[in-house]
Fold:
Amino acid sequence: QIYEQKEEHASALEELESFFDAKLTMGRGPFLLLARILEKLGEKDSLTLRLETLARTDPRNSDLQFFLADQYASNDRLEDAETIYRRALENKPSSEAYLGLAKIYRQQKKARELLENLANALSRSDEIGALAQEFEVEMKAIEEDQKLLDAMVKIVRDDTKDGAAGAHYAKIYLLAQLSGRVKKTDEAVEFYRLALKANPSQASIVLRRIAELQMENDQYAEAAETYQEAVNNPLLQGDRPNNMLYLAFAQEMAGD
Structure:
């Protein structure tokens, strides 16, 4: 980086190549630096080839593999990117790999595959926080593709027509979020209710989401009913004081 700051790009590249030869793992930073240096040297088109060479010699470096997959996806080499993400999932499931596949399937308009992989990424709550920005990009892109979103809604309705099971929870919850984001409040509440049936242990977060959505849309009486439901839920007695407070506020807004 010192060489780069001095604009000694050839020296910076040589130093970086030594770093890569040592097979040290330090996140995506070195690969982003490589991309910047090659661009400064007028060798931007060589980035993918260099990454492929590095990936062959360091196949266990997930940061490198995912960075290469991103390059493939950016250059419309979606099948090559998919291969990397699928291989990564075989070795070790991760939200990053699931999210990478979701991005590919969104571009390919494959609704079921998109839904499954995005739900899998969301369900890994211990990892998804670090990918919040990337996740938000995908959610916003889906919002803007009504036809794709409608296809995802149909899939969830079809899959749960005989009842919602625990395995359906992440997909249903994801659709509830998306429906709320596109201002389809009734549909969002419907999916949140379905998610609650699929996994009653998530009552705290699901009922809170329903009530918040209702409050945002000035449905104060409905929100009060939801908070009352949370107050009465035996699984949520630890949250009862807060829910009582929210209930009182919703009732006041509703004019009760």
Remarks:
- The radius of gyration is 23 Å.
